Amino acid sequence: MAAHAIANTSRRAFFMRSEMAIATVALTDNCLALHGVYCESCRECCEAGALRFAPRLASQLGSVPKPFFNTDLCTQCGECARVCPQDAIHVRPKEISDG
Predict the structure, then answer these.
(1) Residues in CB range of 9: below 8 A, 6 or more apart
(2) Residue 61's pLDDT is what?
(3) pLDDT over 80 (residue 40)
(4) 0.90 cut: is pTM over it?
(5) Which residue, among 18, 28, 76, has the nearest Cα to 51 in the 3D structure?
(6) 37-61 burial string, b = 16+ CB within 10 Å, else e?
(7) 56-78 pLDDT, tens per residue?
């Protein structure tokens, strides 16, 4: 499972004193938008507005937009992962190293 977009939300979570203080949001190859299928289920359910969809390059105008995570807005609620029809979004604690 390759991760296309990984957002580290630990800094924001720390300052918000979230129960999940260190987490990552990962988008996998299962994402329909990455395969040219229009789907914005995650954006539509994100009350914080942490997801946006846009072409990656100007040359891709008119193509299916790709998802991007805004780590400053993400609340780590997991609603985007819950509604994803392809199970392509994973919100999980980040491994903490001892070093």
Answers:
(1) 23, 24, 25, 71, 74, 76
(2) 66
(3) yes
(4) no
(5) 76
(6) eebbbbbeebeeebbeeeeeeeeee
(7) 665 666 788 888 888 778 888 89
Q: How far apart are CA 94 and CA 13, in angstroms?
A: 12
CB neighbour class for 33 (10 Å; exposed up to 12, middle 13-18, buried from 19): buried
Chain position carrying tokens 């190859």: 29
What b/e sequence results for 5-27 when a residue is b if at least 16 CB atoms lie within 10 Å of its CB, and e otherwise?
bebebbebbeeeebebbbbbbbb
> Could you report how far apart the first and last alpha carbons of the chain are, in Å?
27
User: What is the residue-wise DSSP string for 44-96?
Assistant: HH-TT--EEEE-SSGGGTTSPPEEEE-TTT-----HHHHH-TT--EEEEEPPP
